Fold this sequence. Notes:
It contains 6 helices and 6 strands; from the N terminus they run H-H-E-E-H-E-H-E-E-H-E-H. The protein folds into 2 domains: 6-57, no CATH class; 64-126, 2-Layer Sandwich (Alpha-Beta Plaits). The strands form 2 sheets. Strands 4-5-3-6 form a 4-stranded antiparallel β-sheet, covered by helices on one side. Strands 1-2 form a two-stranded antiparallel sheet. By secondary structure, the chain is an alpha+beta fold. The protein is elongated and about 60 Å long. Helix content is 36%, strand content 22%. Strand 4 (84-90) and strand 5 (93-98) form a beta hairpin. The mean pLDDT is 89. The two termini are 31 Å apart.
Amino acid sequence: MRSRAPIFWEMLKILKTEGITIIVSTPYMDEAGLCDRVALMQHGHIMKIARPEQIIREYRQKLYAVKAENTYQLIEDLKQFPETNTAFPFGQSVHFTPKSDSFDVDSLSAFLAERDHRNIDVRPIGPGIEDCFMELMASQPATVGQGS
């Protein structure tokens, strides 16, 4: 149950001060960011092991938070935008990476406006562990973990 998570993490911090090694498995990337080292895994295969801040520092793509009134339709339309590399829902926004460094925010805003999106907001953001995990998954061969 997530409501007890803060108590759990406080207990782990106390144990850590006593020199105890703790291994935690969690699907919650915000919790993974609290650890000293993280092993990002998919289909039983380790994709990367490093400190959370190192994983984030090695993220090389430009990343934008895109918002509009209809998030589902926004995702569908972002998939049709020619400059889209990735578009993943993330809370109330969509995390978007362009295919090239020459990407123009105004062209994306115009593209979305042409498709009747309202209250469009596109802004650059820094990545989190989850963005890094999604990037690693996208870079893995489609066969990793399948059939094994």
